[in-house]
Design goal:
The chain is α+β, with helices and mostly antiparallel strands. Helices cover 50% and strands 25% of the residues. The strands form 2 sheets. It has a 4-stranded mixed beta sheet with strand order 4-1-7-8, with helices on one face. Strands 3-2-5-6 form a 4-stranded antiparallel beta sheet. Strand 7 and strand 8 form a beta hairpin. Helix 3 runs parallel beside helix 5 and helix 4 crosses helix 7. The longest helix is centred in the middle third of the chain and has 32 residues.
Length: 234
């Protein structure tokens, strides 16, 4: 009797271990230095960040996570355990995506392969980071000019900052248009140009391919542009 119970218990355990969630997106990789903890695959559901899969890590830091992707969207890798809260963002889509990173630099410079939209975002970030560095430099110079009570320099810095921001808006717009067949294009418009002139947003929206217009971010961009126009017409 004990033998039968043991066999049944083993069968139940084997079934539980083999019933891992499956999906059309498989995310594999390794977080070096993460010896113990639970790694979560998350995405936004309306305004809430929800977990769609998770895996307990013990020792190697290697992981496999999955989800069913109906439209390419931004995903997050997060973890708990004996570490600080950190996250890694990547563009999820159908297929196999490989992500390798280090615990101490988690999310800052991960190696991500297998996502075409992620490749587009990475190219955008490479140039956009230069604008962000310039913005930080302007903030520092503005603080120093105000401390020195130099109104002429403050006004000059304000004018130069506005010009820099216009260049950034134009760069982001042109980049999105050049990648209009990528779901990353409307994502860039929504995340980086939400406070830009509606003409720029409308230009990107009109340039999108039919496939991208039907995507999650494509629909959201259309709705966002329509709402701005409605407010302006009132």
């Amino acid at each position: 009797m004990k033998k039968i119970i043991a066999v049944l218990a083993f069968s139940i355990l084997a079934f539980a271990c083999s019933s891992k969630k499956e999906g059309n997106m498989v995310v594999k990789g390794q977080i070096k230095g993460l010896k113990k903890g639970t790694l979560y695959l998350q995405k936004m559901n309306d305004t809430l960040l929800v977990s769609v899969d998770s895996v307990a890590l013990l020792g190697s830091g290697k992981f496999t996570l999955t989800d069913d992707v109906t439209s390419p969207v931004m995903y997050y890798l997060t973890f708990d355990g004996n570490t600080e809260d950190k996250h890694l963002m990547f563009f999820g889509e159908k297929g196999e995506i490989t992500i390798n990173d280090k615990l101490e630099e988690f999310g800052f410079n991960p190696e991500i392969k297998g996502s075409k939209n992620q490749d587009v975002i990475a190219k955008f970030r490479e140039i956009d980071n230069k604008f962000k560095d310039q913005r930080l430099d302007f903030i520092k110079k503005d603080f120093e000019a105000r401390a020195a009570k130099d109104p002429v320099l403050v006004k000059q810095l304000e004018d130069d900052y506005k010009k820099m921001m216009r260049r950034r808006f134009l760069f982001s717009t042109n980049f999105a248009i050049a990648n209009s067949d990528s779901e990353a294009a409307p994502y860039i418009a929504l995340s980086e140009l939400f406070d830009a002139n509606v003409m720029l947003l409308d230009t990107i929206n009109n340039s999108l391919s039919d496939k991208v217009k039907k995507s999650n971010y494509g629909k959201r961009l259309q709705k966002f542009v329509s709402q701005i126009k409605e407010k302006e017409d009132k």
